[in-house]
Each structure stands twice: as C-alpha cells, then as structure tokens.
Amino acid sequence: MSTQPLSAEVTMTPSFQDADPMGVVYHGNYFRFFEEARRVMLDKIGYNYREMQASGYMWPIIDTRVKYIKPIPFDLTVRVEAKLSEWENRLKVDYVIYNAQTNQRLTKGYTMQVAVCIESEEMCFVSPKAFTDKLAAWSTNENNV
C-alpha cells in the first residue's frame, strides 16, 4: 500500500434547497457531501459504483457517524475530504468538511461499507479481490510516480 492513503477532496457550495428553515445545511444532507467525496476517491482507483456492480459486488453502508462541529450556511463554499482508513474487511472512509475560505473544520464523520455478492446476496468477510487489486494497482502507481 502506498505511504499516502487513498483520498480525495471536492469543493461544493450548498444551495438553498439543502438548508433547513434556519438557513443552515439540513443534517441529513451531509451524507450527500460525503458521498460526492467518496465517489471521487473511488474513481481514482477505477472502482466506481458501476465498476463495483460489474465486478459482482454491491457495497451497502452498514455504519455511519457525523459530528456536527459548526453549522454550514447554505451559501458557504466548503471543502470535503475523504480518506480511506480501512479496506481489508470493509471500507471505512473518514471525512472532514472545512470552510473553503478559512480552512476551519466544520464537520467530521465516517462511513463503513461491506461487500455483498450480488449473485448470492451474502456478505463478504474480506474485501473481494476485485477491489483489493484496484487498490494495489493504485498504490503501485503512486509509489512509482
């Protein structure tokens, strides 16, 4: 594995429709921000959701946590970082949301996903080779750059 963990970041500006009546991002919408950063991260290794499905696996979220540190106004540009912290038996992705202008941390959280064989609908107790091979190839390329 590369000395640097697989990670990605996206910059987003929540819109009015993301807000609650107080003008701050509704707590359930934070998961959409996490999802976008996770999508970009998995694209880096060539294992996006279409590729997961093609490899015979789905990866449902089985656990999640969000710590709301400061509210996010609907028009504030934020930077969302995603970092893969576990991958052998499940995917654990850690997230931090920052104010893009001040770099102040606003939120942190994580999601955990497990591989489920689409054909048998059985949960895998180790990450499938289809995923670990993609991660290993990315790691090798990172170390050779």
From TrEMBL:
InterPro entries: 4-hydroxybenzoyl-CoA_TE, HotDog_dom_sf, YbgC/YbaW. Keywords: Hydrolase. Pfam families: 4HBT_2. It comes from Vibrio rumoiensis. Its EC number is 3.1.2.-. This is Acyl-CoA thioesterase. It is an enzyme of class 3 (hydrolase). Transmembrane segments: none annotated. It comes from the Bacteria. Belongs to the 4-hydroxybenzoyl-CoA thioesterase family. PANTHER family: 4-HYDROXYBENZOYL-COA THIOESTERASE FAMILY MEMBER, NOVEL THIOESTERASE SUPERFAMILY DOMAIN AND SAPOSIN A-TYPE DOMAIN CONTAINING PROTEIN (0610012H03RIK). One of its GO terms (molecular function) is hydrolase activity.
